[in-house]
Structures are given as C-alpha cells and as structure tokens.
Design brief:
The complex is a heterotrimer. Chain A is α/β, with parallel strands linked by helices. Helices cover 33% and strands 23% of the residues of chain A. In chain A, the strands form two sheets. In chain A, strands 6-7-8-3-9-10-12-11 form an eight-stranded mixed β-sheet, sandwiched between helices. The longest helix of chain C is centred in the middle third of the chain and has 18 residues. The chains are: A alpha/beta, B mainly alpha, C alpha/beta.
C-alpha cells in the first residue's frame, strides 16, 4: 500500500457571520494518494470550495490536521509554509477573475517565479514562461497580451500554466471548468489529464458537475453541508451509491440521451439545500431524506468504511 | 435561400491543417490607459477642461513675462487704471500691472492646488492602503484616528497653525500653508483607497497571488494599487479645485500668502476694495480665473470618471 | 401542427466601437402548439440574443434588427410598436431568466410582483389579484403560499425564487414561455425539480416552451425539438430523437462527444473541440465552424453551406451533405 501524499484528519473551517457560526467544513477526513485524482463533489453550500482552500491553508483552519509528506502543515510557521506552498497550487474557478486584468500573460505566469526568486535572469524567466505556455497549448505570441483579450478557455489555460510554474506536486482544481462552455470544458479536462501523465501530478478536483468529476477522478467524495457523506472509487460510487443523498444526486443529473433519460427512475428531493449556519445536531441530510429514521435526527452518523474502500456516513446502511 | 455557386469538385478536397487557425486572435490589442484616453477624448466637455488647464498652466509661467511689467512693480502714477491697451487687465491700487499679477497668482494657486492634492494622494494611498490590507483590529484603530482628525474643524486648524507659525516668523510660508491645508484633507482619499483595497483584497486574483506564496505587501503593491488607480485619479483630479478654492478662501481671509506675492484668492481679496469704487475688474478678473480653473478640473474629473467606468463603454 | 411562433431569416446585429457585430445571422425556426423547442449552443452563439430579440428586450442601440420576421399568431412582431409589444410581454409571451437572484425586485413583496402582470394587462382588482397570486404559488409548489405571498425575495432560496419567476411568467396564461437558461444557476437537485415543474405546467396549461440551454442533458430531458446554434447561425435542427440518434453536423457531433455521460465507460476518451468560436466582428466568409472542424474541406472556407433536408423535420447546414463531398453521409448514416 502506497503512503498517501495528503492526509486530512477531521478538518474544520468555521466562519463567524452575523447570525452565528457558519460551519462550512465540519470535520472531514480523507487521503489522497500520489498521482491520483481525488474528486470532491456536492451542491452549493456543501463546503467543497472551502475544503479545497482550507486543505492548502489558504484559509486558516479552525481545527483538524493536514499531513503532507508526513508533516502536519497546520503547525508550520509562515516561513516554512512559504516553502510548502511551492508544492501546493490552486487553479481557480473563475477564469475572468483569477487573472489580474492589468498584468500581461507573461507577468501573470511568471509571478510565482518572481515571488520565489526561481530564476537567474530575464532570459531564463522568459524561456520558462514560454515553456509553460506551450505546455498548455498557447504560444509565444500570447505573452504580451492581456487577460481580457482571451476566451474563457484560454484564460483558464493561463491559470493552469501559472499553477505549474513551480513544479508543484499537488494541485487543487477548484471548479476549474464550471464557468466554461461545454466543448471547452472537455479541452481543459483533457489538458489536465495529459499534464498529470506527463508531470506526475496529483489532483484534487472540486466540482458540482458529477459527470465530469466521475470522468476525471479515480476516487470521489460527496459532501453535503460540511460533512463527507460518501467516498469510494469512481466506478464504484456511480454504480453502487449507498448514501441516500448520493443516490438522489445521481438521479437528478440528466443524461444526454432522450431514450434513456425519459425512461429513468428519478428521485426528486423536496426543498432546497438548508443553510450551513448553526446547523442542528444529527445527520445534515435528515430534512430531505426519504429514508430518515429517528436516530438520524439525534445522532450524527459516523463516516466509516461500509464495504472495502467504500465509506459513508449513514445510520441506515 | 439557395445561392447559385459555381462548385467545382476539387473544392471538396480536405482543407489543410495550417489553413485553419483555431487560436486566432482577431481584434487588436486594447490597452487599458489608451482606451481610457480614447473614451475621454470623445467627451467634449472634459476635453475643454483639459485644454483650459493646459493653457492656464502654460500661461502661468509665460504670462508674467509677456508684457514686460513685473508683478511687484509699483507705479503711483498708474493707480487703478481700467483695462486698456497697455495694461490689458488694468492696474491695482498700488499701480501694479494686473495682467502680470493675475498670471503670477495663477502660478501660485495652481502650485498650491496640485501640491496639496498630491500630498493628499500620497498620504491617503499609504494610510488607506495599509488600513485596508491589515488586520481588522488595526484597521479599526486607524480608521477611528482618521475620523477624529477629519472631524476637527478645518478652518480652526488652519488658523491655529497660521498663528503658531506666524509667531515663529514663518506664518506666510508656502509650506506652512500647504501643511495646514493637507493636515486633514487627506482623510477622504484614505477612506476611498481603503474601501478599494478592502474590495480588491477579496478578488480572486489577490487570492491566487496569496496561494502562490505572495506576502500581503506584494499583493497590495502589485495587484491592488494598480487596479485602484482609476478611482484614485478621479478623486485626485477633483481634489485640486477644492485645494485651490481652499487656498483662495484662506487668502481671502488674509491668512495666506503675503504681499507682494499673490495668489488668485489674495488678488480677489485686494480687488474687493475696488468693487465699491467702480474698479470691479480688480475683483472680477481673479474671480473668473478661479472659477474657470475649478470648472476645468471638475469637468475633467467627471469625464475621467465616465471614461473609467467599464459599464459606460460604447 | 399549428405554429405559435415562426421566425424567418432573423438577423440581429450590434453596432460597437469596432464596427458591426453580427450576433444572429439569418436564422429560421418554428415553435408549434404545446411543443418544447430547445435552442442549444455555447456562449456567443446568439441564442440569448435570439430569445431577447423575440421579446424585443434588446437595448436598441446598440442592437438593431438587420432583417427577417418574427411571426407570432400570424402577426409580425417586428412591425409592432413598443406599446403593442408591452401588451404582449408577460401576457401572451413570457420569459424566465437565468439568475433568480437578480430578476426579482428586492423591495417588492412577492405577491405584488406576481400579479403585476394581471393588474396591468387584465385590470384585475386587489383582492382577486391576491387570490390569484396564492393560486399561482400553489401551482408552482411553493409551500405555505398564504404566508409566503407577503414575503420579500431575500426570504426565498434560489430554487424557490425560480419557482416564483415561473409563477410570474405563467400568471396571464401565456401561449409561449421563453426560458433562458432557467436552471444554470441552480444546484442539480433543484434543477431536477424545476424541470419537472415546467413539464407539469406545460401539460396543465398547454403552452409552448422555448428553452435556451447549453446542457445537452436538459435538452434530452425536456425538449421535443432541438435547434443547434453556432456563431449566429443554425447548424442543425430536428426532433430530439433525430438529433441524438442520427446527428448530422460535425459541431453537434463533437458537442455530444465532449459531454461526459454517467452511463459511459471512463476509458472512453472525451473529445474536445480545439480553439474557440469565431469573432463575429469579422464574420467568416464560409462555414463558421471551418477553423475547428476536422472534416473541413476547401469549399467550407469559401461558401456558407446550404441547408439540406435529412427528413421533413431534420435539417443541417454542412457541405458534407453535398453529393460532391467524398465523405458524404450515406442515407441513414450519422452518430459517431
């Protein structure tokens, strides 16, 4: 058994808001193995984006531990964290907002190099930038252009080039394709896959598009209101979902095939996703669950292995 | 709609890869500031303002040399002459040529206005930038301090400082004037900058820079400030007429510049006496100058604000 | 089938600093009674402009109608005055927008917003209008309608707000509902609810629906016919079953191949389309998909392809359909 690259243990992130405590991430634990893609899915408010940012310590955690190569990064000093940051990079969701509109593409991609003084002279810097741009399918002719001159897909590729500048081991992709057109999504996902093979990267892929997450991920975790509800290998999760939420989620995704779609059995959930502020005790899904029993309201189910490598947090399984 | 094409079979052969450029960039590169300038140029009023400012600035230096009279030259035989061919703006009650004096005054007023505004700018950006980027606690303290400073009546401060420095013999010094004026006027700029910084701190590119390992200072200097220059520039442009008028006010009250040097406000003050005795030109000419300058900066500032607003792009 | 809406050779352009941008370049399609037509395409293809154009909600400058007709119930909407259009909007043709967060007035109570249309178009009185508002909330399955009718938008969640939007759109019993990406901003479980609701309402009230989306799954779920747009033109149109089962246009094929499906194997590669759609400030001389098409031929660059009929309902615009094309489709070919 290989050692995990990343181990999250009971990670928590709470925010103080007007009405109380917003428990965005409320104790999640999982491992990510080298060179795998770990997918994290859920709907709005489930905490997946916050999880991604807390894992990389972009947000200071409220609790828990995060082990990277054996060290708990939550205990590191600011300086030590700077070093670790070279290995943790993030690709953000909004290609229109994650690039500074006043900087040229060259400066944007070179910024990590500038911050960490990773080159000796301007030529080296230029060369590295062009190398990175080529990796993502752009070219030398693009270096003096500004973000607003590119399409969404191209901007996202610039963001990826930037994330690769310091040769990181681990990249958190925070909804990297949600803001893109369908055909461009495939472009970016294929690029990410290629880069993974080429450079031996490990990904955490956060998205709400389950079909895409399934496609790119080796293992997938399903979050709901700050809790991890189910975690399993990709194929296993989609073929044999055991948590009621996962089942409802999967049945809600329309399949682009009219014959199949019209004959599917649908589980329609009532109501909306409740607020993560001051959540009640018990299972977070209890309000919308068709199979809820009394225990579900009182006791929060433990996230544990229900069958080999298949984890879930539910009382009735 | 079927068009009649002359279609030959060879047209149906496969097109070459090179001919198809999927990543083509079509439009010419639009840089930010050139685009702002272009939009500003379309605004006739703002351009008028800019022209006036340029004209006045040039004349402020050249105007005093044009007709040969010095601003301090007194000639008791030429007292209170109405504007004529020799003295284009007339003379004042000490026989000094108004034309030369008015341009000299313009020089002073512009200098004070622009300097005061620039000092406000520097202080404001520094203070506001730090307040915005730092922790909430320090930010709160900084803001309370700024508010207290700002709430002290402006005229009171100016008079106090004037008096203090007069007793030390420096009362009319240019720098004392500017010091007194800018002591409290930097606060609105600081508040503006702080607001901008707070907002842009949350922008995704700031977050991205943080994830790359950038320090807060780096983010402030490289990411936030460049993106706030727009509103800051507008504020700066609109502060200049405020400063000019403030100085005019002070001079009018007799607190500012001392004879024989003069500013437009001081000239207006001197000219007030002439109003009652039929020498209205002595008041009106400096007053018109002040108004024109303020008008010019105001419309330029407004035009800049419109040119910078992305929503108004045509 | 009788047609509620007939769009003929519609052309809409925008006058910008750079010149004219041809957003919609001559499209024609029909919507029949009680039919759901999906307009699919990616950003910039002109689908939203078309929808807003039918309702004449585009800012008129810089937009302008360059040509064509929009026939609704036998009358050309482009010949109507603004006053006449106001009598039609919200009354005979309604629209549901993408973002429920911003489409509702935050300072007006929900009930009041719902019946605004009734009061304006049908001169209904206060009491009767309020009753109708509660009725509409019930129709769209908002729980506790008597209580919620007096609440403000911020007290509703995203999904609920979208339901309110639909109630608003339905209140005057329109013949045509245009839904512009109605579920894009919603979670997938809420999306499923809203789509179910729309289907139910169509059954009950018999209206026609135009649904604008980029999600092929939604298209498969709710639509009877599909119009595929690319760079301001219709590249393929047909019954939903035809479009999915015997796709004819390379763009549609690539689009279908680039969407990961829950039921496909993970080893199947995801096809992506290189590059980006053309800039419509310089519209391409020939086929707009030329730069990105793997089947491109020289003729594709020179001339805009003609429309070919594959069946009475299935049409596509591609030079591959021409008898002179070497890789021409066989009579029943299609799919991958």
């Amino acid at each position: 058994m290989t050692e995990p690259l990343i181990s999250a243990r009971n990670v928590k992130k709470y925010f103080d808001v007007g009405g109380g405590k917003l428990k965005a991430v409320d104790g999640i634990s999982f491992d990510i193995y080298p060179q795998e893609t770990f997918g994290l899915v859920g709907e709005s408010g489930c905490g997946k984006s916050t999880a991604g940012r807390t894992i990389t310590r972009l947000y200071e955690p409220t609790g828990g531990e995060l082990f990277f190569n054996g060290k708990n990064i939550y205990k590191l000093s600011r300086r030590e964290m700077q070093e670790v940051r070279r290995n943790f990079q993030i690709v953000f969701q909004d290609p229109y907002a994650s690039l500074n509109p006043r900087m040229t593409v060259e400066d944007i991609v070179a910024e990590p190099l500038d911050i960490h003084h990773a080159y000796k002279n301007r030529e080296e810097r230029s060369e590295r930038v062009i190398e990175l741009l080529r990796l993502v399918g752009l070219g030398e002719e693009h270096i003096l252009r500004f973000p607003h001159e590119f399409s969404g897909g191209q901007r996202q590729r610039v963001g990826i080039a930037r994330a690769l500048a310091l040769n990181p081991k681990f990249i958190v992709c925070d909804e990297p394709i949600s803001a893109l057109d369908v055909s461009i999504q495939a472009q970016v996902v294929n690029l990410l896959k290629n880069l993974q093979d080429k450079l031996g990267l490990t990904y955490m892929f956060i998205a709400h598009d389950l079909s895409m997450v399934r496609y790119i991920s080796d293992r997938v975790g399903v979050m709901y209101l700050g809790h991890m509800m189910e975690l399993a290998e990709s194929n296993e999760l989609y073929k044999n979902p055991i948590h009621p939420y996962t089942k409802a989620l999967l049945s809600a995704i329309p399949i682009p095939d009219p014959e199949i779609q019209k004959n599917r059995k649908r589980i329609i959930l009532e109501g909306d996703v409740p607020s993560p502020i001051n959540p009640k005790p018990g299972c977070r899904f209890v309000e919308r669950c068709h199979n809820a029993i009394d225990k579900c309201r009182k006791e929060t189910p433990v996230f544990e292995e229900k069958s080999p490598k298949h984890f879930a947090a539910c009382h009735i399984i | 709609m079927k068009a009649e094409y002359n279609l030959k079979p060879d047209l149906f052969s496969t097109a070459s890869r090179e001919d198809r450029n999927a990543e083509k960039m079509h439009r010419p590169s639009i840089r930010y500031w050139p685009d702002v300038w272009r939009r500003l140029k379309m605004n006739k009023l703002a351009m008028t303002g800019l022209v006036i400012i340029c004209l006045f600035s040039i004349m402020a230096f050249v105007g005093t040399k044009i007709n040969g009279f010095k601003y301090f030259e007194q000639d008791y035989s030429l007292i209170n002459i109405h504007p004529d061919k020799v003295h284009w703006f007339g003379t004042d009650e000490l026989g000094r040529d108004m034309f030369t004096r008015v341009w000299f005054g313009t020089r002073y007023s512009l200098f004070i206005g622009v300097t005061a505004a620039l000092i406000d700018f520097v202080l404001g950006v520094l203070y506001g930038g730090i307040a915005g980027i730092t922790t909430r606690r320090i930010d709160a303290i900084m803001m309370r301090v700024a508010e207290v400073i700002y709430s002290i009546p402006y005229l009171l401060i100016v008079i106090l400082i004037s008096v203090v420095f007069t007793s030390a013999g420096q009362g009319s010094s240019l720098f004392v004037m500017i010091f007194a004026m800018t002591l409290t006027s930097w606060v609105p700029m600081a508040i503006l900058v702080r607001g901008q910084v707070l907002q842009l701190k949350e922008s995704e590119y700031s977050l991205a820079a943080e994830s790359l390992g950038a320090t807060r200072g780096w983010i402030l200097l490289k990411h936030i400030i460049p993106n706030t220059l727009g509103p800051i520039l507008v504020n700066l442009t609109l502060q200049i007429p405020g400063a000019i008028f403030a100085e005019a006010n002070l001079s009018f009250l007799g607190l500012g510049i001392q004879a024989p040097k003069s500013s437009l406000g001081a000239l207006a003050n001197e000219g007030l006496a002439g109003l009652a005795v039929g020498n209205a030109y002595q008041l009106f000419i400096p007053a018109i100058f002040i108004s024109l300058i303020m008008f010019a900066f105001n419309v330029l500032g407004d035009g800049l604000r419109d040119a910078l607003d992305p929503r108004l792009r045509k | 089938m009788e047609n509620v809406l007939e769009v003929k050779e519609l052309k809409i352009s925008f006058q910008t600093f750079f010149g004219e941008v041809e957003a919609v370049r001559g499209i024609s399609f029909n919507v029949g009674k009680k039919e759901t037509v999906a307009i699919v395409g990616e950003s910039g293809c002109g689908k939203s402009v078309t929808a807003n154009g039918v309702m004449q909600l585009l800012p008129m400058p810089p937009a302008f109608f360059k040509g064509g007709e929009i026939i609704f119930n036998g009358e050309n909407l482009l010949k109507k005055t603004e006053k006449e259009m106001q009598a039609i909007r919200g009354n005979k043709i309604s629209m549901v927008f993408q973002d429920p967060m911003t489409s509702l007035n935050p300072t007006m109570k929900i009930g009041k917003q719902i019946v605004e249309g009734l009061v304006k178009h049908h001169k209904m009185s206060g009491d009767a209008a309020r009753k109708k508002a509660i009725e509409m909330l019930e129709l769209v399955s908002v729980p506790q309608p008597e209580k919620r009718v007096n609440q403000y938008p911020h007290e509703f969640s995203g999904g609920m707000r979208q339901r309110v939007m639909i109630a608003l759109a339905m209140v005057c019993n329109p013949q045509l509902l245009i839904a512009d990406e109605p579920t894009t901003a919603l979670d997938v479980t809420v999306q499923a609810q809203i789509l179910e609701l729309m289907k139910k309402l169509q059954e009950q009230l018999g209206m026609s629906i135009i649904i604008i989306t980029h999600d092929l799954g939604i298209v498969a779920d709710v639509s009877d016919r599909v119009v595929v747009m690319y760079a301001g033109q219709i590249v393929e149109t047909g019954l939903t079953s035809e479009i999915f089962a015997s796709t004819k246009h390379p763009y549609t094929k690539k689009l279908l191949a680039s969407v990961p499906r829950l039921d496909m194997s993970r080893d199947e590669p995801l096809y992506s389309i290189d590059g980006t759609p053309p800039d419509l400030y310089i519209p391409p001389k020939g086929c707009s998909f030329y730069d990105r098409c793997s089947e491109a031929m020289k003729v594709c660059k020179e001339h805009v392809p003609e429309l070919s009929e594959h069946s009475a309902t299935h049409l596509s615009r591609c030079w591959m359909n021409h008898p002179m094309a070497k890789n021409a489709y066989s009579k029943d070919g299609g799919g991958k």
